[in-house]
Amino acid sequence: MNYRIDRIILILFLMFTGAVAFVPYLVQSEYQLRVVTVVVLWVGIAGCWNMMSGYTGYIDFGPVVYFGIGSYVVAIAMTKYSVPFFPSLFLSGCISAFVAFLVGIPTLRLRGAYFAIATFAFAEAMKQITLEFDRTFNVSFFQGSDGITLPISNYENSFFFYCILPVTFLVVFTHYFIEHSKFGYALKAIKEAESAAEISGVNTTANKLVAYVMSAFFLGLFGAIEAYWITYITPSDVFNVQKTVQMVIMTLLGGMGTFLGPVVGATFLTLISETLGAQFVEYYLIMIGAIIIVAILIMPSGIIGGLKIRKKLRFI
Amino acid sequence: MTSLECKKVSMKFGALAAVQMVSFSLNSGEILGMIGPNGAGKTTLFNCVIGVYRPTSGKIYVNGIDVTGMKPHKVCRIGLAKTSQIMEPFTGMTVFENVLVGALHGGRMKMGPASYKTEQVIELVGLNEYAYKLSGSIPVPVRRRLELARAIATGANILLLDENMAGLNPHEIDEALEILKKIRDSGKSLIVVEHIMRVVMGISDRIIVLNYGSKIAEGLPEEVVNNEAVIKAYLGEKLSSLKVA
Fold first, then answer.
1. pLDDT tens digit sequence for A89-112
2. pLDDT score of A316
3. Which residues of chain B lie closer than 8 angstroms to A196, CB-CB?
4. Are residues B109 and B3 in the same domain?
5. Number of H helices and number of E strands within chain A?
6. Range of the domain at B121
7. Cα A80 from chain centroid?
8. pLDDT digits over B223-232, tens only?
9. CA of B85: which chain A residue's CA is closest?
């Protein structure tokens, strides 16, 4: 096994994260900082999807629901109960994880397309609940389509950058842990052949559930941070299926079930849409679509997954 | 001592009774052959035993513990592992990692001891030269051995081998038989389902015969091949007239 190479990759990764931490001191404009922050945010969000779907092969089509729950928990905790930001943030992660636990028990029994449909339906259902709850019960809690305005902070962009970076770091580090652990082998075995995994002693239900809950916890954190950063949330925004699609595409582009897949995929896609978006305002989405199609055709297993070197260095 | 005991196990799919009131027991250190025509219920019986299906009625005991209706991973940890007729290697993993999954989860080991155990099992079944190849890229006979290795690595003391030698040539069968004997000598009990009579007759201590979901015969290999019912249902006239070596 390539444990030595693994260590080198880990050290390089730690050094890289350390270097990224200095970005706020190096950028020339707030715009650049925002772009970097968005890249780091998406690396994390795509990583959450990869953690569950990339390793187990269970295509989750509703991860955005935990992002949305995170956003709403932080918004409601801060505006209605005046809880400070950091406790609310933590609460967001916990509630997202708890909901994932409850939802995971029945849905993770489903396989293939049925799981995708169930998760998708749940995300849409949550969007409808937040939209219609207040009108139905005549209360003011989720504030429906009016959305919630969070307390406006005095923090600068760099504050949010430093909120997001550690969470993203944890997400990517969790991937590294998954690659090297008993837990990771269980997930990969489930992906390759679930019934064979089961008769080899893998507790498939428990392992899938842990992956699902972990991914939801981190998504909740990201949702909460973004809500506080943007300061205004609506159901159709935070539960937008577009976010799910973006997670999936980024991970597919980078390589599903790989350590660096979401990092590469999310960075590539965010930067390319920023550059193209600035130059070709009207056509850039068409161009991105074309790029994605070409990329998937040339590298069906993603940028990282398609690297030949990966056959030698199994853990990237 | 009895390692595995099935008491009046039946499995019905709607009106179809795939397995009917089958009872048998497996002693420790024994190789039990199981034969029967296609559709006799051998694989269904196995699936009941390992927990893929919950039998409609009857009880199954593994190492003295009632495992009826338990999930496969629990049954595996109690001491029963199976190789499938339809091979399912974890194709994206190397041979080593495939076996490692069995040791880690079936054997409930930590990474270090599990790697050590994996090396030993790979040595035992003679997979050394393939250890770091992706399991999707290895030939069929090697995949058969990989299935076997993964089952052994779980540490189970009972192995169910469902047509583990299908598709092997005579030379490969001889090698596989040697491996099975080594496994038996290491203290495990085996149930071997096979259509190749040379295999079943060569290594079984006892044989049971299934037909239409029921057990129609049980006994020493010589007794079974001369049993009228077995000849009629499965062997046919010619083979039974041959002397058993």
1. 999 999 999 999 999 999 998 888
2. 44
3. 84, 88-90, 150
4. no
5. 16, 2
6. 87-155
7. 27
8. 888 888 888 8
9. A196
